Amino acid sequence: MTAEMIIGNPFFVLACSPDATRLELERQAQLWLGMLELGLAAAQQYATPLGPRPRTADAVRGAVAALRDPQRRMAAELWARHATPITETPAAPAPTEDPVASRRGLPGARARLGWGG
């Protein structure tokens, strides 16, 4: 149940803040539905703390319907506010960087000193 409360959280599906007004949520839902209808790639997925998930028109309709119910909205707000923040995966260091030096805040130090790579 915990993972489902995060993965299917209506605020993540709609890409809205838990502080969003009902009007903002309705507008965002209409925006996603229009983008999905047009087949735009940007609308095909949404971010969650557990990774990206596919966004469908049914998921958008279900999310906005859930947020119209005060009790369901309160539960969704709690889960959205206290879930691990959504972060992008860190990029791997460039092949020319020394991983030890970059951990110490000195990326490329070896190359600048003429010690290789």
Structure overview:
The chain has 117 residues and is mainly alpha-helical. It has two domains: 2-82, no CATH class; 90-117, no CATH class. 53% of the residues lie in helices and 3% in strands. The chain is built from seven helices and two strands, in the order H-H-H-E-E-H-H-H-H. The protein has a two-stranded antiparallel ribbon. Helix 3 (22-38) runs antiparallel to helix 4 (57-68). It is elongated and about 65 Å long. The N and C termini lie far apart (49 Å).
> Helical region count?
7
Task: Write down the Rg.
Answer: 20 Å
Shape verdict:
elongated
The secondary-structure class comes to mainly alpha
Assign a percent range to the helix content.
Answer: 40-55%
| Strand numbers in spatial order across the main sheet | 1-2
Number of strands: 2
Q: In terms of per-residue confidence, which ranges show pLDDT below 50 for 5 or more consecutive residues?
A: 89-97
Outline the fold blueprint:
Blueprint lengths: L1 H6 L2 H5 L7 H17 L6 E2 L6 E2 L2 H12 L1 H13 L16 H5 L5 H4 L5
Antiparallel strand pairs: 1-2
